Amino acid sequence: MSSDCAGPAMAIQRHEMKALSAYRASGAPREVDEAHPPRPIGHRREQMVQWVLDGGGTVELREEWLPGEVAWHLLAALRAEIPWRQNHVVICGKRVPEPRLSSWHGENDAVYTYSRELHRPSPWTPALAIVRDALERDLGVRFNSVLANRYRSGQDAMGMHADDEKELGQEPLIASVSLGMTRAFVLAPKKGKPGEKQVMRLTHGSLLIMGGTLQRDWKHGVPREQHVFEERVNLTFRLVSARR
Prior knowledge:
This protein has helices at 3-25, 68-81, 126-139, 214-217, and strands spanning 47-52, 57-63, 88-91, 94-97, 101-106, 112-114, 117-119, 145-151, 158-161, 174-180, 183-189, 198-202, 207-212, 218-222, 232-238. By secondary structure, the chain is an alpha+beta fold. It has a single domain (3-238), classed as Alpha-ketoglutarate-dependent dioxygenase AlkB-like (Jelly Rolls), CATH 2.60.120.
């Protein structure tokens, strides 16, 4: 096999083996069997469920988009590679820490405004680039940035919001990859009754794809869960327009 054909798969497997060593060194459970090579990212064995919501918003959930062993490898690498930090937001004139750790990565021109603050991207890490490339191959779209969020326990959360910033365009496609502990993901219409909200559980290795008019008409968030004690890392890949 030529190096051109073998390159992506070999790169993923080399990265996984390094990540596995780091993950086990951290005292994590031994859930990976080295005797069986991991199946590739984006393999079509995952379960897929699709919804079309009121107004034309679309949601697609692919369980096991990352197989368990690959997902553990990537989680270990992301924990080590990303410069996690706790950002602050202004509420009622007072700066308060966000209840999670985060990091913004991407191409140089992927500058993003969130909570009235300008975020300039850090470079892609090797693990983030692996997931980006797999998503682009699988979905046939381009992503130039990713927001990484690290929920250290059920006390960390994300308030209800919409990714409707002008840099994302009218109907952005956002691909959300979950690693680690299963957490609730809540969708609620911007205009509607509280009982109309939708709740789904995002599991380890799952891929959630949001598109159409979802960001225009719906909000989403990750609520606190008192009985969750393990961490979750979430990666939301986007295409951000260059600022002018």
